[in-house]
Target: MFS transporter
Amino acid sequence: MIAGKKKGCQGRTTMPKESANTQQYTRPSTRFGALWHYPDFLKLWTGETVSLIGSQVTTLALPLTAVILLKATPVQMGLLNAVGFAPFLFLTLFAGVWIDHHRRRPILVATNIGRGVLLGLIPLFALLGMLRIEYLYIIAALAGCLTMLFYLAFQAFLPTLLPREQLVEGNSKLSVSQSVAEIGGPGLAGILVQWISAPLAVVVDALSFFVAAGSLLLVRTPEPRPAASIDLRSLLPEISEGFRVTFLNRYLRAFAGEAASYNLFWQVILTVFMLYAVRELHYSSGIIGLLFAVGSVGALCGAALTSPVARRIGVGFTILGAAALSDATLLVLPGITSSTPGALGFLLGAFFLQGIGITGCNVHVDSIRQTLIPDRLRGRANASYRLLVSGALPVGALLGGFLGAWIGLRLTLLVGALGLLSTWLWIVFSPVPKLRSPSTLVDELATSALEKPGETNVGMLD
Model:
């Protein structure tokens, strides 16, 4: 139940050793990709696509419930967004170590079922006339805990399902699903909000989580045996090992810094944008849904174009250009002061280009991270990364809410847009632009201590 397009939050990261994959790989003679021959990936992909569509309905319906039905203030909107992300800030490190010691598929099933139950409470309370902003805070916080567990477990589960050479295709297909969901989801949400009201529209998301849980139950590929039971005496050393993997590696550190700063300022924008669009621009839920849908068309284009572009100019320059594109386009937001067709056209163009940039960057970043992090460190390394990247979200939400109340909605949009413009510098001042292909990282990794159990040195250090 996390709203908005974010860096580094998409299904989305780490790598198995080859022995972890028990599903046989046969290179097909089809141009549509090898993964059409992986039944278990298709089950996972189908369930996630349904869930992503449902979550896009909540992305629009939940804040509109707060804005329209509960008359939320900027500070209340900031708090609502922040509590959903707070678990990433406070629980991620411990959850990452815990996930390393448990099989990931049962965790994915349980968190999907739990989120379906929690979101189902919103339409139920609305029908009973009991819905209050405080209840939304509690539901968002609990769902945020389950979402945090789901993200960490998913990032560790996907590479056990696919061989290394298919991770880019797997991430691309998941990105396409994300984009398709974001194209259809907001439009569906806009229709549902106008037809049955915002809180009742959330029932679509609740049902989608049960579909995703069912698809995971059908997966038959066995997981590698998890690590031994957690020894409390080793908890802090294991957490610190995850930090070393993430922040001593030049590539992972650059990706974490760029994604965290992007998420911080994007959340500043997102927290006040819904208020600005409804109260200042007087947009309907349908128009707001159209903006997010067009942004997702851009994301779909980015997913389709990023691999061919990378083959021509290299992965590093593709990541750099995509990051710059996603950062610069939203500078138009504070300049939109009316709801004229021309102003709407500028907004549509900005969201479209942002979508291209985000997905064009994410596909390659996810695949590189999956290449660099071995199975035994997956949960804790992703947890340290997630602490920074997703931990920036509640900070951005609170900052956006308080700035909106203090300096106004439009100036807050300007602060967020200027902040976004600086985030690509993390990529500029890193070795990423020189990277031609992730295969060169595999060669370096083969001789690094990162693959060797019992050693904590990280390959490719400064």
In short: The first helix runs from residue 39 to 69.
